[in-house]
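Regression test case RT-17, inverse folding.

Input:
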């Protein structure tokens, strides 16, 4: 190989490296709306982004929800990340459709919500309305941190605040509404030291929780390379994060298993 050929080869190698570096830089540096958007992006990279979650294809886990007065739900949850398919088998449901004795199953198969009681399909519209709330809500809570970069989200940087000897960035999250109906609002408290969300305020418009939000506290576990907020508790608060005197509602996720091999057929009624 003569010197000119060697030079051309080296030039091509250098240009390829340069183009790859530029592409990589572009992928890691999206255009941010504002500082709040950038902080949320950094948080998502820390806990694991949606592509990292979607690569695991599916998840199964035990969901335990306990109200302040002891009312309990226990369900076996299953999700497919592609299409946001969702299934829950409730072996205890003292707060969710307690009028049914015995196990209930809820599902979303990509197009339809359905409900079964002891294996029999239930078509009651009021009961199905609860399924239409539970299935996307339970899925969203599990994938919430990854979904903070979904399209149609507006970010507002509120400022900084110390809480219990820790320093926080506060970012307000609001969602586009095509029909101008009210949507839920989240106010994230991002720990300056760890870049993760230790707590957040949220509304539940479907249940009339708008003026007085809830405050959710989070504890994380590292599972298969992702930081998952497996222990949660929340109660009524103010928009200044001043807690009410109400008791805590606790939510725990246990026995989390990713990529379990479930298929779309598992979500059919």
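Golden output:
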């Amino acid at each position: 190989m003569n010197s000119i050929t060697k030079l051309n080869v080296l030039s091509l190698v250098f240009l390829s490296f340069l183009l790859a570096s530029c592409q990589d830089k572009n992928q890691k540096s999206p255009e941010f709306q504002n500082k709040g958007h950038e902080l949320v992006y950094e948080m998502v990279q820390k806990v694991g982004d949606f592509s990292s979650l979607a690569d695991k294809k599916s998840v199964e886990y035990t969901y335990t929800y306990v109200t302040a007065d002891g009312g309990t739900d226990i369900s076996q949850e299953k999700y497919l990340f592609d299409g946001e398919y969702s299934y829950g088998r409730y072996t205890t449901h003292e707060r969710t459709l307690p009028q049914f004795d015995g196990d209930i199953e809820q599902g979303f198969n990509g197009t339809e919500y359905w409900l079964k009681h002891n294996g029999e399909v239930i078509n009651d519209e009021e009961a199905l309305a609860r399924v239409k709330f539970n299935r996307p809500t339970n899925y969203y809570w599990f994938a919430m941190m990854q979904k903070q970069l979904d399209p149609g989200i507006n970010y507002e940087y509120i400022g900084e605040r110390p809480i219990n000897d820790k320093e926080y960035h506060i970012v307000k999250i609001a969602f586009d509404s095509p029909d101008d109906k009210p949507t839920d609002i989240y106010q994230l408290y991002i720990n300056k030291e760890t870049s993760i969300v230790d707590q957040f305020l949220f509304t539940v418009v479907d249940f009339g929780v708008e003026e007085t939000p809830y405050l959710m506290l989070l504890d994380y576990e590292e599972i298969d390379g992702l930081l998952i907020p497996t222990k949660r508790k929340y109660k009524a608060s103010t928009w200044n994060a001043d807690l009410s005197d109400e008791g805590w509602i606790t939510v725990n996720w246990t026995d989390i298993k990713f990529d379990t091999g479930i298929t779309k057929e598992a979500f059919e009624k």
